[in-house]
Design goal:
This is DAGKc domain-containing protein. 22% of the residues lie in helices and 29% in strands. By secondary structure, the protein is of the alpha+beta class. It has two domains: 155 residues, Probable inorganic polyphosphate/atp-NAD kinase, domain 1 (Rossmann fold, 3-Layer(aba) Sandwich), CATH 3.40.50.10330; 206 residues, Tumour Suppressor Smad4 (Sandwich), CATH 2.60.200.40. Helix 3 links the parallel strand 4 and strand 5. Helix 2 runs parallel beside helix 3 and helix 6 packs antiparallel against helix 7. It is globular and about 60 Å long.
């Protein structure tokens, strides 16, 4: 792979350019004449960024391309991931893992950029949305329009964001354990044309029996629920861009845990469908908590997934990884009034958590504390660490007209 500069592209004088690895899934973009690479390379060159282009292939997934680039020669100044969530997530995970490898072991709570070994540096990430839903980019406020996303990169504003970890896997959207995790193997088998695997997965879907699930939040608080699944969110959006955890933030050092008390399988599917279509109604059986660590005490084994990828039986706790990654984002804007939740909330705030240390406001959750504009309907008496809130859920965005963009 060589660094490329588009013919005729104007940019800063030689020697002042930054070098970028552009990891891109090969999807056509009709408004750019099909292949978007020349346009992206030209725009970045005009901003003083020269690109080494790496195209994902079945035998060259996005994460492997990033690891190879970081291992061979001097690392790039930034990595640009162009694709959907199926590209953005693995690239982000590879960079976060590399950053974690560069950090010293003296302070596990420090972010990679703050506590690195001598000579080590982290590589920031930039996202260009080319997928259908682009949940990770949307959570960060990155525009769907390619040129607007390139403007964000050229502006150079960045921030540290969190990840989640389970079974040794990093996730940036949502992970979970329980019945919903049995759905993903069927979808994966269907995509690969594996009929036998799909039938096996379908049988698992119907055989799964929900019972009481007992959680331990931040090592201090037990929560028991007869829920068919445990949804653990790092960001607000998942799947077909529905707001599964609308008030989740990517920079508070916490995960949002959502339980569906007394739901059956049909209830859960109906609820997810209503959220996806933007007409979910408040349901007191949907309860959310926040914690940095979520351990499932029982049952002993549950199927699990991370960002929609099956990861086998749950073997570890879900953990927040604060400041896992530095990413280019737009300058902060006033919060959208559209983002709403239907869940009841409580927050676990153990001593030493980022909330307890003042990273985010403690006490009752309010629209202001969450960075959410609009009117909340609260029930019960507010008390530190817990408040019941009911919101409307925003409609999901319409997918791009370009039906070829299938990278989620």
């Amino acid at each position: 792979m060589q660094y490329e500069r588009a013919a005729g592209a104007a940019g800063p004088p030689a020697g002042t350019q930054r070098l970028a690895l552009l990891v891109i899934k090969p999807v056509p973009v009709p408004e750019l004449g099909g292949d978007p690479v020349p346009h992206i390379v030209r725009r970045l060159a005009a901003a003083g960024i020269e690109c080494r282009v790496a195209t994902t292939q079945p035998n060259q997934p996005a994460a492997a391309l990033v690891r190879e680039a970081l291992a061979c020669g001097p690392p790039p100044d930034l990595v640009v991931a162009a694709g959907g969530d199926g590209t953005h997530g693995p690239v982000a995970a590879a960079l976060a893992e590399a950053s974690a490898g560069a950090t010293s072991h003296g302070d596990s709570d420090a972010g990679p950029a703050e506590n690195t070994q001598p000579g080590a540096r982290t590589v920031p990430l930039a996202l260009i949305p080319l997928g259908t839903f682009n949940n990770f980019a949307r959570s960060l406020g990155i525009p769907r329009q390619i040129d607007a996303a390139l403007d964000v990169i050229a502006a150079g504003h960045s921030r540290a964001v969190d990840a989640g970890r389970v079974n040794g896997r990093l996730f940036f959207e949502v992970a979970g354990a329980g019945w919903d995790a049995t759905l993903f193997p069927a979808g994966e088998s269907l995509k690969r044309g594996n009929v036998a695997g799909m039938l096996t997965a379908v049988r698992s879907i119907f055989r799964f029996q929900a019972g009481e699930i007992v959680l331990l939040l931040d090592g201090a608080r037990r929560v028991a629920s007869r829920t068919p699944t445990v949804v653990v969110a790092n960001g607000p959006y998942f799947g077909s861009s529905f707001a599964v955890a609308p008030t989740s933030r990517l920079d508070d050092g916490l995960l949002t845990v959502t339980l569906f008390e007394g739901f059956g399988k049909a209830d859960l599917l109906a609820y997810f469908a209503s959220v996806a279509e933007g007409h979910a109604r408040p349901d007191p059986r949907v309860v959310s908590h926040r914690a940095a660590r979520v351990e499932v005490l029982s049952p002993p084994t549950l199927p699990a997934h991370a960002d929609g990828e099956p990861i086998g039986s749950l073997a570890t706790a879900f953990e927040a990884v604060p400041r896992a990654l530095t990413i280019f984002t737009p300058l902060p804007q006033p919060p959208s009034a559209a983002l709403r939740s239907t869940a009841r909330w409580s927050i676990a705030q153990p001593t030493g958590s980022r909330e307890a240390q003042g990273a985010t406001p403690s006490g009752p959750v309010t629209p202001e504390a969450e960075g959410i504009a609009g009117d909340a309907v609260t029930t019960g008496t507010p008390r530190p660490g817990s408040q019941t809130m009911r919101w409307k859920v925003p409609p999901r965005p319409a997918p791009d007209a370009d039906a070829e963009r299938t990278d989620r």
